[in-house]
Amino acid sequence: MISTVTGAVMGGLLGGPFGAFFGANIGSNLASQQNVKEEKKQQLERLGLSPTILAQAELIGAQLFEAEQAVSAIETATASSLDLARLLEAESESFFTKAEKLLTGGNEDEARQFLLKRAATQKRQKSALKNVIENRALLDSCKEKKSLLAGKASEIESLLVRSVGASSIAQANEILDLEI
Q1: What's phi and psi for 43, nearest 5 deg?
Q2: What span, in angstroms and rounded, lies between the C-alpha atoms of 149 and 61?
Q3: Are 102 and 114 a contacting pair, CB within 8 Å?
C-alpha cells in the first residue's frame, strides 16, 4: 500500500493527475514484484537452499557459460587461421607454377616477381600456422579450465540436491511428529 501511495504522490508531483494515476500503478506493481521476490526467497529457504549456495551456483554457471563461449571462439579462430594457411599455400603453389612457366619461356624478370610474391605469401602462411599452434595451446588450456569449472558445478549441484533432500526429510519428520 505504501508503494502505491508513494508512486501516486511522486507521479502527481511530476505529471499532474494523470501522473498520479500512472505513479500509483507503477508503485503497486513494484510492491507486488517485491512480494513475489520475497515469497520465492521463502520457498527456497523452506527447500533448504541458502542465498549463499544459490549465489555460488549462479556464479559457477556464469563462469561455465563464459568458458564454453571462449572455447567456441578459440575453435572458430583456429579453424579460420588454418583455412587461411591452406589458402595461402595454394596461392604460393600458384605463384611457383607461374614462375616455372615464365622461366622455361625465358622471362626471368617476371618469374622473379612471382617468386617474390611466393616468398611474401609463404611468410604470411607461416604467420597463420603460428596462430594455429598458439590457438591450439590456448584451446587446450581453456578446455582444461572448463573441465575444472564443470567439476565445481557438479559439486555445487550435489550440494544443492543434498540440501533439498535434508530439508525434505526434516519437513517430513516435522509432519510425522505432528501426527503422532
Answers
A1: -60, -45
A2: 9
A3: yes
